[in-house]
Design goal:
single chain, mainly alpha, about 65% helix
Length: about 170
């Protein structure tokens, strides 16, 4: 109807559907998700509602919405972020691309604040998160005594080195 008005049409072909209340709700959710002014979190909530209330899997949602399955999956994953970060996305303070690398991080909110403060791009955020994950996994896997030995040897030799501690 809106498109017809913009095009100056006074008559448009229509299809009348005889739907149950449940079917009407389903159609309303699908139409709502297709609005242009929807933010990513609203879209994710719509996808999630189709999944929870109507049992749609991501593949069916992607075909119905003419989106890739990865888009649907990545969008729905944003709902696993803390509420404060979801609010930041809804307000437009950060983008979904900036927030996506934060999924699953325990310190996601503090990194989100850093993103805003330093006005980091999505690519920079991805690199930042990747390096923080690598630092965490290195410190998690290494024994403190081995790290101390490694640091002492580096100072004595003036070289960067890594001690690999294996089972045998």
């Amino acid at each position: 109807w809106l498109a017809a008005q913009k095009a100056g049409l006074h008559e448009v072909p229509i299809v009348v559907l005889d739907l149950s209340d449940n079917e009407a709700l389903e159609v309303a959710i699908v139409e709502n998700i297709q609005r242009e002014d929807l933010n990513t979190i609203e879209e994710a909530k719509g996808f999630n509602r189709l999944s929870k209330e109507f049992g749609y899997d991501q593949e069916k949602i992607s075909k119905m919405m003419s989106k890739s399955r990865s888009h649907v999956s990545n969008t729905m994953r944003l709902l696993t972020l803390p509420n404060d970060i979801q609010s930041m996305i809804e307000e437009g303070t950060i983008t979904a691309g900036q927030a996506r690398p934060l999924i699953g991080l325990s310190n996601a909110s503090s990194i989100a604040e850093e993103i805003i403060k330093k006005k980091l791009s999505a690519r920079v955020v991805e690199s930042l998160v990747k390096s923080k994950k690598q630092e965490f996994s290195k410190s998690k896997n290494l024994d403190v005594d081995i790290l101390n030995q490694q640091n002492q040897l580096e100072e004595m030799l003036g070289l960067k080195l890594k001690i690999n501690n294996k089972k045998n």
